[in-house]
Write a structure and sequence with these properties.
Layout: H1 4-9, E1 22-28, H2 33-49, E2 54-60, E3 78-83, E4 88-91, H3 97-103
Parallel strand pairs: 1-2
Antiparallel strand pairs: 1-3, 3-4
Protein name: KaiB domain protein
Organism: Rhodopirellula maiorica SM1
InterPro entries: KaiB-like, KaiB_domain, Thioredoxin-like_sf
Length: 115
């Protein structure tokens, strides 16, 4: 099993033209299976929808619990979208891609009656 550190190093975007850059923070509590699943799902979603335009910062609240207050974290795993604004939070392991895309505002809410 890879560590967060080795996975995070490969996520820095390559320099490109001026495009909207997404800054995401993933708050976890230790290197548990749920935390790793959340990270892998977030990385997959970003690679599919934001390739080259995102960065993910993993914050382990076991190591740095004081950082939870800054982004009002009450559950883990939680993803916080810092940029682009508006700031938004999404709790869970991001297993449901459609809900994650809507929660991160990468896809609009479906209209009532849409299938």
């Amino acid at each position: 099993m890879e560590s967060f550190e080795s996975l995070t190093q490969s996520l820095d975007p390559t320099p490109e033209e001026e495009v909207e850059h997404w800054e995401l923070r993933l708050y976890v509590a230790g290197k548990t299976q749920k935390s790793i699943t959340a990270f892998n799902n977030l990385k997959r979603i970003c690679e599919e929808h934001l390739k080259g335009r995102y960065s993910i910062e993993v914050i382990d609240l076991v190591e740095k619990p004081q950082l939870a207050a800054g982004d009002h974290i009450v559950a883990v795993p939680t993803v916080v979208r810092k940029l682009p604004e508006p700031l938004c939070r999404l709790v869970g392991d991001l297993r449901n891609t459609d809900k994650a895309l809507v929660g991160l505002q990468l896809r609009p809410l479906p209209m009532v009656g849409d299938h």
